[in-house]
Amino acid sequence: MTNGAKLSGNMRGHEQALEDSGIWPVAGADEAGRGACAGPLVIASVILPPPSRPLPEELMSIADSKALTERRRELLFDHIMSDAHAVSVICVDVEEIDEKGVHAANISGMRRALLALDPAPQYVLTDGFAIAGVGVPGLAVWKGDQVSAAIAAASIIAKVTRDRIMVDLDEEFPEYGFAKHKGYITRVHEAALIEHGPSSEHRKSFANIAALLGP
Q: How many angstroms separate the CA atoms of 90 and 97, rounded?
């Protein structure tokens, strides 16, 4: 994939400033599936090559996963997995989401993803929420997947991993259409829930699912 694409804006500004201060490695972390009412929450953490070394051409089109086509995400997924210094992925299942609540489950999963990195980061960049308990300083970056290459790379890994899981779940539960809407609520998904009721992969702590299950 050598189409001459360049990283939009200064996507490596945070990492560059940290490396210039002698702080490296720097990890980015992000999640996929927070707003879905079915399927797992998937959190990824990525350490890219340092800004002092140019990124491989294949990684120059890294962007927020939501702004990319499915095909481009799949291509970038493979290149990130092969060219990043470290990648970790954590899947938080429906039972943990229902037990802890989606926000607490997200924070816990992000902490586990960051702690699983090898080499361990000296600093972490996260999308939107600060993460305590990782043993190193960090920064919660507003709209981080749009302004930080490391966070955007993590968003791609998390999104592609979760989409693949939902396609697999579609084979197990074909009546819900998971392969198309990936567990988010749509008219088709809502109609299937009314007809068939929730599956074991639906989050019972979510209001729309709880309403269907009744008191």
A: 13
Cα–Cα distance for residue pair 59/149, rounded to 1 Å: 9
Is position 5 within any domain?
no
Residue 58 lies in a domain: yes
**pLDDT tens digits, 59-111:** 888 988 888 999 999 999 999 999 999 999 999 999 999 999 999 999 999 99
> Residue 56 corresponds to which tokens in the numbers above?
């491989």
Residues of the domain holding 43: 13-171
CA distance 186 to 184: 6
Residue 2, domain member (yes or no): no
**Total number of domains constituting the chain:** 1
CATH of the domain at 156: 3.30.420.10
Task: Please count the other Cβ atoms lying within 10 Å of the Cβ belonging to residue 133.
Answer: 10
Residue 7 has pLDDT above 80, yes or no: no
Rounded to an integer, the average pLDDT of 168-181 is 98
Would you say 35 and 46 are in contact if contact means Cβ atoms under 8 Å apart?
no
| Nearest by Cα to 47 from 65, 20, 68, 23 | 23
| Nearest Cα residue to 33 out of 207, 213, 132, 155 | 155
Helices 13-20 and 149-172, packing angle to 10 deg:
130
